[in-house]
Amino acid sequence: MMNTENILRPINYPDTVAGNSTSIIDDTAIINVMGVFGLPSTPFNPFLRLEEEITSLKNNKIQNIIIDVHAEATSEKRAVYQMFKDEVNIIYGTHTHIGTDDLEIYNNRCSYVSDIGMTGSLDGIIGMDQANPIKRFKEGVSNALDVVKESNNNIFQFLVIDLEDSLIKSAQKIKLYTKDNQKIISTAVNL
Ligand SMILES: [Fe+2]
What order do you get walking across the sheet with 119-121 strand by strand? Predict the structure, then answer.
């Protein structure tokens, strides 16, 4: 799987790592970049790599650019937004598994949210069975994590962005979740 073309590699890893750096579909580029705080160190600075990559995409007349900022720290995600909101169309954060409520649109030009959230169980710890994370925190030794196997409380969080002629027509942040398997509850932020 790691050798297929569909793997999007963070742009701050070198080319020797599996996957493709930026993915280009028609006139839209999708970039993944990995943050610094609390994550394994990558060889290249994410902010400097983004500057290089976005300049290159603009020179190649790519019309739309989407950035997935895979990072622990909201400040790093927000920094990417402030640095590139005039040049790209969608910036969203991932990694924390906890959705944030700060969806915004800048000048009809760029949509931003600090974290989309997750698809997974609301029991356990950010979608993982709680036994191994608690053991890790108590003992200080890394161990493999398992997703929650069975749960009556599950969540599906996603963004719907209408991007047309490089302008943001609308943005929605939606979460669907079950409570005690009883019903599906939906909440949305609409801009
Ligand atoms: Fe992650």
Answer: 119-121, 154-164, 167-179, 183-190
Q: pLDDT, tens digit, for every residue of 106-142?
A: 999 999 999 999 999 999 999 999 999 999 999 999 8
Residue type, 115: D
For ligand 1, a single-atom ion, which residues have Cβ within 5 Å?
A: 95
What is the 143 CA–ligand 1 centroid distance (Å)? Answer: 16
Polymer length in residues for the chain: 191
Dist. CA 39 → ligand 1 center (Å): 8
pLDDT in tens, 14-46: 999 999 889 999 999 999 999 999 999 999 999
Q: What stretches of 35-124 adopt beta strand conformation (E)?
A: 64-70, 90-94, 104-106, 110-113, 119-121
Distance 167 CA to ligand 1 centre (A): 29
E-strand ranges in 11-114 read: 23-25, 28-34, 64-70, 90-94, 104-106, 110-113
Query: How many Å lie between the centroid of ligand 1 and the Cα of residue 89?
Result: 23
pTM of the full structure: 0.92
